[in-house]
TrEMBL record:
<keyword id="KW-0067">ATP-binding</keyword>
<feature type="transmembrane region" description="Helical">
    <location>
        <begin position="62"/>
        <end position="82"/>
    </location>
</feature>
<dbReference type="InterPro" id="IPR003594">
    <property type="entry name" value="HATPase_dom"/>
</dbReference>
<dbReference type="InterPro" id="IPR011712">
    <property type="entry name" value="Sig_transdc_His_kin_sub3_dim/P"/>
</dbReference>
<dbReference type="GO" id="GO:0016301">
    <property type="term" value="F:kinase activity"/>
</dbReference>
<keyword id="KW-0418">Kinase</keyword>
<keyword id="KW-0547">Nucleotide-binding</keyword>
<dbReference type="Pfam" id="PF02518">
    <property type="entry name" value="HATPase_c"/>
</dbReference>
<keyword id="KW-0808">Transferase</keyword>
<keyword id="KW-0472">Membrane</keyword>
<feature type="transmembrane region" description="Helical">
    <location>
        <begin position="103"/>
        <end position="121"/>
    </location>
</feature>
<feature type="transmembrane region" description="Helical">
    <location>
        <begin position="127"/>
        <end position="152"/>
    </location>
</feature>
<dbReference type="InterPro" id="IPR005467">
    <property type="entry name" value="His_kinase_dom"/>
</dbReference>
<keyword id="KW-1133">Transmembrane helix</keyword>
<keyword id="KW-0902">Two-component regulatory system</keyword>
<dbReference type="InterPro" id="IPR050482">
    <property type="entry name" value="Sensor_HK_TwoCompSys"/>
</dbReference>
<feature type="domain" description="Histidine kinase">
    <location>
        <begin position="184"/>
        <end position="366"/>
    </location>
</feature>
Length: 374
């Protein structure tokens, strides 16, 4: 109920102060011998309350009008009772600071100054009473008060926006982190689990024909599953550096297990890559090899590493069934995201002689010769 009579957002900070101030104002006016008649006093106090109430709910030109009306009312009361009534100008000075317009605040401050100029004229020594009494610092404080309130509210609004932005950023980072973990799990564990699957199929074929060979395959499965466990630990902590050479070696074993012959050709001296760049390319190669084993039905695969101008190129070609039209899996998207993070590109196309060609291109213009990035 009270929130309909008084703004909810101000109840905690202002309600008690406003109630106490209004009670004191009513007491001073109604108990003063120099106040106008009872009806006149009630009219002035009603005008004060109306101005105060309107100022509570608005932040636009209605707030300015309410402040000006309230200051005018206090000026009239002050001319009857004396300058002490000007202390209640803090009520409207505070309201004025909540205005959205700097021009409105400037007009209100001018009205406060005018009020402190008019009321002392009623005294015997005129404006001298203003300059020689405590009224001067009170006037200065009331004139500065709206500016202080405006700055505080502006700061709170900016802090609120910053908090919202930080919350949105945190959600975005969490989402990106989930996607990264999902991508890394897919890229890293996918290949290892594919090898375990292939080894298991081989072991099942050999178990009756050649138990000794089946036993060897089971040993490989055990070793590969240990690798998978280590990869999970690494992914849970943080992505480690992955050497492109070691990844190609690992890919050779995977393809050999799947009955695919791998040929690697390196043209020229390899460039000096940062650990992040080499890791991203290695993971992209890993994903490409996993896709070849799973989907290509290929017998041969070739990897060409070359530096063309300021571009480092990794071309992966197989002689399999080629691309299925309209079907690009998560693996291709994962490679694209990794290379885009390095300002590189990924091109996937059908090979002229059958199969698929994946071309990874990384710009090297930011590298200095003989000075590897870290």
């Amino acid at each position: 109920m009270i929130s309909k009579l008084y703004p909810r957002d101000q109840i905690k900070s202002y309600l008690i102060i406003d109630v106490v101030s209004i009670v004191f104002l009513f007491y001073i006016v109604l108990s003063s011998d120099s106040a106008p008649s009872l009806s006149g006093s009630l009219i002035l106090l009603t005008a004060f309350l109306a101005s105060f109430y309107i100022g509570l709910w608005f932040r636009d030109r209605y707030l300015l009008a309410a402040v000006l009306a309230g200051i005018a009312t206090l000026t009239l009361i002050g001319m009857y009772i004396g300058p002490r009534i000007l202390l209640f100008g803090f009520i409207f000075a505070d309201m004025l600071g909540k205005s959205k317009s700097k021009w409105h605040i400037a007009i209100g401050i001018a009205a406060i100054a005018l009020m402190f100029t008019i009321v002392p004229l009623k005294e015997n020594d005129g404006l001298a009473s203003l300059w020689s009494s405590i009224l001067l610092p009170i006037m200065i404080i009331q004139m500065i008060f709206p500016i202080i309130v405006y700055i505080i509210r502006k700061t709170k609004n900016l802090q609120g926006r910053l908090d919202i932005a930080n919350q949105q950023l945190e959600k975005y980072v969490q989402q990106e982190e989930r996607q990264r973990i999902a991508r890394d799990l897919h890229d890293t564990l996918g290949q290892t689990l594919t090898m375990i699957k292939l080894k298991s199929e081989l072991a099942a074929k050999w178990v009756d024909k050649d138990p000794r060979q089946a036993k060897e395959e089971l040993k490989d499965i055990l070793a590969t599953s240990r690798i998978a466990l280590r990869q999970v630990r690494e992914l849970v902590s943080e992505m480690k550096f992955i050497s492109l050479a070691s990844e190609l070696e690992h890919s050779g074993k995977l393809l050999h297990t799947a009955g695919i012959e791998l040929e690697i050709a390196e043209q020229g001296k390899p460039p000096l890559l940062s650990s992040v760049e080499e890791t991203m390319i290695a993971l992209s190669v890993r994903e490409a090899m996993t896709n070849i084993v799973k989907h290509s039905q290929a017998k041969r695969c070739s990897v060409t590493l070359a530096t063309v101008g300021h571009i480092y190129c990794v071309n992966i070609t197989d002689d399999g069934v080629g691309l299925v039209e309209g079907k690009l899996g998560n693996g291709i998207q994962s490679m694209k995201e990794r290379m885009q993070a390095l300002h590189g590109t990924v091109m996937v196309s059908n090979s002229p002689h059958g199969g698929t060609t994946i071309s990874l291109k990384l710009p090297l213009h930011h590298h200095r010769k003989g000075n590897p990035a870290s």
